[in-house]
Design brief:
heterodimer; A: mainly alpha; 13 helices; B: alpha+beta; six-stranded mixed sheet; five-stranded antiparallel sheet; 9 helices
């Protein structure tokens, strides 16, 4: 009777969990801004565990996460060439690691973190040929806790897609992160180039350099340890469309006035000659 | 004598040249000679009406007005028709012809309520409506009454940073920055009245009804009202600001680094306490950081001493007009639109150790002043708040710092509504 009660409770809890998922939780598509190629229910359940505080009792969480793990394993042969599959699989391993961390099973945590990193490595390696396949939000999620080289790769893919922006400045701090990681990895030339790219992007996007000069200066001094190279001031950077427009607005009337004055002077001169004659 | 003659000629010549250029300039600018003989009612709001500005309120929509916490909300008035009246007496032999030109071709037609004939046509430059020739037999021919056609927000749903086919929209900065998309045009109507006698125009009068910046902002809120959100959640229900709630941008104290209080391009702002909140947070952070540095008493989860970096706080977001909010956020009802929220980034490479420690210091600072601050805050990564578990665990990466701080890309704070 007691076993029956426990089973019933589990069923009720799972139904409640599924219902709560369908009504409130962010779906994979919502959260990662990308369509998953695998069963959407699986992807949504994995996302829910990652992005929200799950209310289920700890033992139910374990049952659900293990179930997801076996469902994902079953899909491996048919999805082995899909970057998004490996991302979801890695994300589930990350969820399992978080779960076992909660229950203080250190070795199991390590194992799942290793599995997660391997899955993300596969995702990145498949995505290399076509980074647009995965969204900036996915790269941004993957990069945490990855080995250095993979973290750099994920950050750069994220940057290439304009970053997973949530506010006005985050994109530029992501540039800084890329430069910082390259520098720490001893890839100095790449770091310098990344800084130049950041400057170019700032000019292209026409950011207000009175605000962002501070940031550029800090990247140069703190990360690139440069002291000799002069940081471009807003005045030097007038290659932007807006400045070109301003130049046009100033130069054209000035030229007109000069032409007008020349005409007047010429007439005065002609009149002067005439009256002399 | 020669000198005088020469001076006279020179002055005359210069005068002609100046007049010539003035004429060309006037032509180029298409400057309107506005007539004082036309009286205009453009809005039920006296302040809008005084500057011949307006907003367009859709029919049968009950939208609340009053966006600030302390403002008493009221249902916004329904669209009043525009009334333009020629207020001088007319001779029986005179005929009238009205013309209405809509400035933005994407927001085409108007609904003429005056009881006289006319027709509209879509030109390359926009929509043009013109009446027939109105002789003395036409009743109320001196008064033109029309309504603008309501328009709505064009994109089907909110989708942060993406347009059709998953492509990022070429947009970022509010209507004042990019006005080529169908989001929130600066609408205006040019009304021209020709008075004719025996088929020839004897006088022309012009009036311009144009949304000013405050009404453009208000129109944005109207257009975004009840907008569907991307994914699950409530539709947009942010109230419309009154004109009095929109003000010039206050000066940001020099201690506050980073972006201005708004990056929207209107040079106006809604500030519902965000500046005070920003100051309080920044001061708390600097004080707490100083204390930690001098006490040298800051340890990580593995009980190792932590060196506190000198990273300052950087304002990344303040007030956002709805368009800008739509680009940056999934939150259709985001408090940035109310002027009650502020986002901070710590000045360190994102997701670096320095950044993680600084967010930790910031979090502690806010926990210390919790009772005085009367605000809500959360650490966010990829637009989601960090989970409770992430404040406790240290696995991504394992570095002695709770994952929430490792992953955070900004701190969001807002006054409580």
């Amino acid at each position: 009777m007691q076993i029956f009660n426990t089973k019933l409770r589990i069923i009720v809890l799972i139904i409640a969990f599924t219902l709560s998922l369908s009504s409130n939780a962010a779906s994979f598509d919502d959260y990662f801004q990308s369509k998953s190629d695998i069963n959407s229910t699986i992807a949504d359940r994995v996302t829910h565990y990652y992005s929200e505080d799950v209310k289920l009792p700890i033992e139910q969480q374990q049952i659900e996460l293990k179930k997801l793990e076996s469902q994902l394993s079953a899909l491996e042969s048919s999805h082995t060439n899909q970057a998004i599959y490996w991302f979801i699989r890695g994300l589930n391993d990350r969820n399992l690691a978080a779960h076992y961390n909660h229950t203080n099973e250190t070795e199991t945590v390590k194992q799942h973190i290793e599995n997660k990193n391997n899955a993300y490595r596969k995702a990145l390696s498949i995505a290399k040929n076509n980074p647009q396949k995965l969204s900036a939000a996915i790269y941004s999620t993957m990069k945490h806790g990855l080995p250095e080289d993979l973290k750099i790769e994920a950050t750069q893919f994220e940057l290439a897609q304009g970053g997973n922006i949530e506010n006005e400045s985050a994109y530029w701090y992501l540039h800084w992160s890329n430069i910082d990681q390259l520098k720490k990895a001893g890839r100095h030339e790449e770091a310098d180039k990344a800084f130049d790219d950041m400057q170019k992007a700032m000019r292209k996007k026409n950011v207000d350099m009175s605000v962002y000069a501070d940031l550029s200066k800090q990247v140069e001094k703190q990360t690139l340890k440069r002291t000799d190279k002069k940081i471009p001031t807003p005045i030097q950077q007038d290659n932007t469309e807006e400045n070109k427009l301003i130049s046009k607005e100033v130069i054209m009337p000035a030229l007109l006035i000069i032409a007008l004055l020349s005409l007047v002077l010429l007439t005065i001169y002609e009149l002067f000659i005439k009256t002399k004659k | 004598m020669t000198g005088k003659y020469f001076l006279n000629k020179a002055v005359k010549f210069t005068g002609y040249i100046c007049l010539y250029y003035l004429a060309i300039y006037t032509q180029l600018c298409n400057a309107a000679i506005l007539s004082s003989d036309l009286s205009v009612i453009s809005s039920a709001d006296p302040e809008s009406n005084a500057v011949q500005s307006f907003i367009i309120v859709p029919k049968n929509k009950f939208i609340q007005q009053g966006i600030k916490k302390q403002t008493k909300q009221q249902v916004i008035s329904q669209q009043t028709p525009f009334v333009i009246e020629y207020n001088k007496p007319l001779h029986d032999t005179e005929t009238l012809e009205w013309k209405v030109k809509v400035s933005n071709k994407q927001y085409g037609t108007i609904n003429v309520l005056s009881k006289f004939s006319g027709h509209g046509k879509l030109l390359k430059s926009g929509f043009l409506w013109q009446s027939g020739y109105l002789n003395k037999s036409v009743k109320n021919r001196q008064r033109l009454v029309f309504r603008p056609k309501p328009f709505s927000h064009q994109p089907a749903i909110y989708k942060k940073g993406r347009g059709s086919a998953g492509k990022r929209r070429n947009y970022g900065g509010g209507t004042m920055h990019v006005n080529k998309e169908r989001y929130n045009p600066k609408l205006s109507y040019t009304i021209k009245l020709n008075i004719l006698k025996s088929g020839s125009i004897i006088s022309s009068h012009e009036a311009i009804l144009e949304m000013d910046k405050k009404d453009m902002i208000r129109q944005e809120y109207i257009n975004h009202y009840n907008i569907r959100r991307y994914g699950k959640g409530d539709n947009g229900n942010i109230p419309i600001p009154t004109r009095q709630e929109i003000s010039t941008i206050p000066i940001k104290p020099s201690e506050l680094k980073g972006n201005p209080l708004t990056e929207s391009k209107y040079q106006l702002i809604i500030n519902d306490g965000m500046l005070d909140l920003a100051n309080n947070i920044n001061n708390a952070y600097l004080t707490h950081r100083k204390n930690l540095k001098s006490s040298k008493n800051f340890y990580d989860l593995d009980s190792k001493k932590i060196f506190v970096p000198n990273a300052n706080l950087w304002i990344s977001s303040g007030w956002r007009n709805p368009e800008r909010n739509e680009w940056y956020s999934n939150a259709v009802n985001g408090i940035h639109q109310r002027g009650g929220a502020i986002d901070f980034i710590v000045m360190a490479p994102s997701n670096s150790r320095d950044s993680a420690i600084s967010y930790w210091v910031l979090w502690q600072a806010l926990e210390e002043i919790k009772s005085d601050l009367n605000a809500y805050w959360q650490l966010e990564s990829n637009g989601r708040p960090m989970t409770t578990q992430e404040f406790k665990q240290d696995i991504e990466p394992k570095n002695g710092i709770p994952d929430a701080f490792d992953k955070a890309d900004h701190l969001h704070a807002n006054i409580q509504y």
